[in-house]
């Protein structure tokens, strides 16, 4: 697996991260790159796949002051976060549970199981929690749900799937996120 490392002044880290997100990355890790300059440097680590030519074209479009390099990354590192995943209680009777975790729910508890695949989203982000609470109160059979910035699309799609005849549309800048949302929607018949 190829990794892209972009080294930028710390004051431009957010701008550079945004440029990477716009390319469709699913994660950006920020690391200290060293000091000794007036504006210390940070490294932004991410992956854009294995197409060296495509990655090079994208990176060459960055401002010249941003240095970049390609590195080989151990693909097993990409899944280490799974060891730290936990169920996320949305309300007293609604919990989002990562699909690989054993979880026995007491009667009366709605369990939304999600598998984000290679995308971001376990249902625990504050915006997702608030959205799940609001959607749960407003959703009804036959409703249409639009999720802007759907991430993996899994949490809201699963909740929408509990209401017969509901339709779900998700949009995101990440093609991987959209593909995962499509897979989830098809599996639920949405």
Description:
It is built from five helices and nine strands. Helix content is 28%, strand content 26%. Strands 2-3-1-4 form a four-stranded antiparallel beta sheet, covered by helices on one side. Strand 5 (88-91) and strand 6 form a beta hairpin. It is elongated and about 55 Å long. By secondary structure, the protein is an alpha/beta fold.
Give the count of helical stretches.
5
- How do the strands of the widest beta sheet line up side by side? 2-3-1-4
How would you characterize the largest beta sheet?
4 strands, antiparallel
Structural class: alpha/beta
> What level of helicity do the residues show?
25-40%
**C-alpha Rg, in Å?**
19 Å
Distance between the termini: 33 Å
Tell me the number of strands: 9
Strand content: 25-35%
Q: H/E element string?
A: EHEEHEEEEHEHEH
| Global morphology | elongated
| Quaternary | single chain
Low-confidence stretches: none
Mean pLDDT: 82
Keywords:
3-stranded mixed beta sheet, 26% strand, 4-stranded antiparallel beta sheet, 28% helix, 190 residues
